[in-house]
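Journal club side-thread
Mid-discussion, someone asked how the predicted structure for our own chain would compare to the paper's figures. Pasting it here so we can look after the session.
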Amino acid sequence: MSLDGRAVLDAQNIRVEFGGLVAVDDVSFTIPEGSIVSLIGPNGAGKTTFFNVLTGLYKPTSGAVIFDNAEITGDPVHDIASGGLARTFQNIRLFGLMTAQENVMVAMHSKMNAGVFATIFRTKKQKAEEAEARRFAQELLDYVGIGGVTNEYARNLSYGDQRRLEVARALALRPKVLLLDEPTAGMNPNESAAFVDFVRKLKADKGISILLIEHDMSVVMQVSERITVLDQGQKIAEGSPAEIKSNPRVIEAYLGKSGSEASK
């Protein structure tokens, strides 16, 4: 998919201030339809703040977010999610005392039509809808590679399986764009490599646009079609993996720091 294609998400001149602190300073960013793009930068660069603006957790001080040709700036989080912009979190947010299947089904709530009456009295319509939700949840668990843990409590799953469960729950919203916040954090190299393959499969199978915030530069360079770099709340570079690798400002602000730290 060409990065010159239609933008499914377009953030325009986003600025976020917390008191006197400018966390994001006039950042514009697009996600082309059917693309995999990454947002990188050192700790404190403003990545997660920007991510939270896109998903409605924060309202920007100024600027606009356009998703699928409609402005969503400041819309409630649940409206943005049910509209097709789904995310995972850097710190896993699962319901520990619910099963894997139940965690996925929770995300389907906004898509279900049975009302309170039908739920209380377990009408035929409600039972059919619940059965379909269970079937779809199992399909998603199978798809992300954890179909064998359907009835396991989320808190009992391995770290890697919890990450996959979060992705399955996000996919339950049938998103147009999936935002992944540090998806390989805590994974070993083999798990990270498997996740790269999974992200590529996700795009190929479902045509979903994907935005990554990721510290593992091996993952970023392998999977991204375009990379945007933030430093101190400002966009300092944007381009292909090859362009970002050789950009002097990026080397100084991020890649160089990572390299020097790793060599200590």
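Post-session note: The chain has two domains: 1-84+175-264, 95-173.
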